[in-house]
Write a structure and sequence with these properties.
The chain has five helices and no strands. The protein is an all-alpha fold. The longest helix has 27 residues. Keywords: Membrane, Transmembrane, Transmembrane helix.
Length: about 100
């Protein structure tokens, strides 16, 4: 019985870590949006944008491995702007 509880607890730790990595990857996508408005040189801006996109993707896929394929697909679906309109239309039809 203890082993099952430990396994469940460790699974939740990995799940929480994975969700944290997914959120961190989302936050890293803000760097390419903000960087053009800084006073850094063009070389630094290009490096920061490229590096942040690559790191964000790597962190996203590590997080996806930790939380599972279904949760990662659902998370990515929430971020897709095409789905935003569908959700608001569904809510209007329900009211």
């Amino acid at each position: 019985m203890r082993k099952g509880k430990r396994l469940k607890q460790s699974k939740s730790i990995f799940y929480n870590l994975g969700m944290g990595l997914l959120i961190l990857s989302l936050l890293l996508w803000l760097i390419p949006v903000i960087t053009p408005f800084t006073s850094f040189s063009t070389k630094v801006k290009a490096g920061a944008i490229t590096g942040s996109i690559i790191i964000a993707e790597i962190i996203f896929w590590i997080g996806a491995l930790l939380v599972g394929k279904e949760v990662a697909a659902k998370f990515k679906g929430y971020l897709n702007p095409k789905n935003w309109r569908k959700k608001s239309e569904e809510q209007q039809h329900e009211d």
